[in-house]
Amino acid sequence: MTRLPETVYSSETLDRLKAIATEILSEAKRRGASAAEAGISTSSGLSVTVRMGDVETIEHTRDKGLGLTVYFGKKKGSASTTNFTKEAVNDTVRAACAIARHTSEDECAGLADAELMAKSYPDLDLLHPWPLAPEEAIEIALKAENAARAHDPRITNSEGADVSHHEGSYVYANSNGFLGGYASSRHGVSCAVIAKDDSGMQRDYWYSVARNAAALEAPAQVGEKAAKRAVERLGSRKLSTRTAPVIYTAETARGLLHHFVNAIRGSSLYREASFLLDHLGKRVFPEGFNIREEPHLKRALGSAPFDNEGVATRARDLVSDGVLQGYVLDSYSARKLGMQTTANAGGVHNLVVEPDELDFDALMNEMNTGLVITELMGMGINAVTGDYSRGACGFWVEGGKVHFPVEEITIAGNLRDMYAGIVRIANDVDVRGTIRTGSILIDHMTIAGD
């Protein structure tokens, strides 16, 4: 059996990266920089794809990168490299300094405030190595695809099954005295297949992802779910244009809330390019709707002890009882807005939408008649006005039961109205990303079809 050399992301690895970061900051100071910050990452992984019982790809990855930003007063310069030799690192510092000397001053430029740096932080249990040999990965992928192909005779083709594992280390340092790092892992199994009958062909997929391989769904279960979803879409038809209630399934609801995050992101706000401009302290969602940011959930995909500027992450209410409580800011956007960073340099950390106490079937029953959305296409989103229009597939529901599958329709509305029109949230929470939500029922949207 061929086995990859095991990469142990231990304190020794982090110490090596911290030593490089310390050298970079010293060199930047020697060259006259008044402040500097560096982020360094290394990673390794394996990805295997099989299709129709044959191995299509086996890919080993080893990546590393170093990014440096220096400041000469309010002048800023950045450079990066994938070469960690002393000569290459010094060249990177030299390039960043040369750029900074020729840029214009920006009063909002600079490191995050020193008092906001993470002084100590918990072990979030993010690293779970999976010493997976290619032969083992192939076997797992074949189990997923074989289960999908055996699920129903109408599964006639496959787009393949994939198994991957990834492990890496990240270190951030700045001249305010911060030096920290952590290691993490991410593993996954996925499968996509095609179903066919007299009505035509339909494709669907399923995947499982986790920090710990032991938490992944069984490969046969992944394959069976992919096949079941594809078969259920056979016989899809269009709808006539109408207005009706809509359910976003948990995996599509995450995208719906991603638009909300973009609208309250600092860069959108200071550019005045958001439909939620000046909405802090105002109602955006219905009463009883809550979103909390939980950066310290153990093993969660969005967990981090500090953000990309070394600022300590902390739990906070983003939306409470439907009212917007905070924005998503890094130091630069916070200064542009006259506010303080929310430790979101690099993104959000586990946004948790509080669900109601009903499952998906109960949510359909409450909707009674309407559309369940299982897939979205296109990106017809106007971030300034909130106008929303996307292609969709799913199922038409009558009397709380699925009536028939639907395709080639467009759903439209305005995000302000859609958020305000949220009726209930099911407890089928999808944890496969940085936004954790169940399926969401919206009181009405326009459905454009025939």
Description:
The chain has 450 residues and is of the alpha+beta class. The chain folds into two domains: 11-231, PmbA/TldD fold; 242-448, no CATH class. 24% of the residues lie in helices and 37% in strands. The protein has helices at residues 11-30, 86-101, 134-151, 219-232, 250-263, 266-270, 331-337, 360-367, 415-420; strands at 35-51, 54-72, 75-81, 155-174, 179-197, 200-210, 242-248, 291-293, 316-320, 323-324, 351-353, 370-381, 387-398, 401-414, 422-425, 435-436, 440-448. The strands form three sheets. A six-stranded antiparallel beta sheet has the order 3-2-1-4-5-6. Strands 7-12-13-14-17 form a five-stranded mixed barrel. Helix 3 (134-151) runs parallel beside helix 4 (219-232).
